[in-house]
Amino acid sequence: MQPRISVWIQPAALSLLITVACMAGTARAACAGLHVTVLNIRNSLGSVDCALFNSPSGFPTDTLRSALRLSAMKVPDRAAHCDFMDLPPGRYALVVLHDENMNGRIDYNWLGIPREGYAFSNDVHGKLGAPSFEQAAFVYDGKALELTVTLRY
Which of 40, 76, 108, 117 is the most buried (most CB within 10 A)? Predict the structure, then answer.
């Protein structure tokens, strides 16, 4: 008869293992947090920047001062994902920008139309400008939530 080997992992260690697995993307869909897939990235230049807001204050333009969380990544193979972990339940809205020239802002043409890709949660689009926080807002319940946004150019 084979001896039984049992391993007991302390809860803190188990939590750390799950967090590491989530950060590595191995169990992304099962990990608590907001997981955003960005579609329609036209090239692999620059970075994709995600800004998560929890109030209308500063939405959508004042990301550095008003966003609750920011995430930026390079764009290998025209693919990008933003993950926001350890979020409390609540109402949020998301702004995603494809900063192709990496100047830290979205560039516009002479008519005021964005030259770089942009998207908002709920894939909403404003009529003559950006949508409001209310239009882009979604409810997060504290569990794993998968969102997809499609960039517009």
Answer: 117
Question: Which of 28-42, 54-68, 117-131 is predicted with the least confidence, judged by mean pLDDT?
Answer: 28-42
Cβ within 8 Å of residue 76, ≥6 positions away: 44
- Asked whether residue 63 carries a pLDDT value surpassing 60, the answer given is yes
Residue 11 lies in a domain: no
Nearest of 62, 38, 70 to residue 153 by alpha carbon: 38
Look at strands 33-39 and 144-150 and give their pairing: parallel
> The domain that contains 46 carries what CATH number?
2.60.40
The number of domains in the chain is 1
The residue-averaged pLDDT of 25-49 equals 86
- Is the residue at 8 inside a domain? no
Residue 14 lies in a domain: no
Q: Greater confidence, 58 or 112? A: 58
Predicted model pTM:
0.81
Tell me which residue range forms the domain holding 127.
33-150
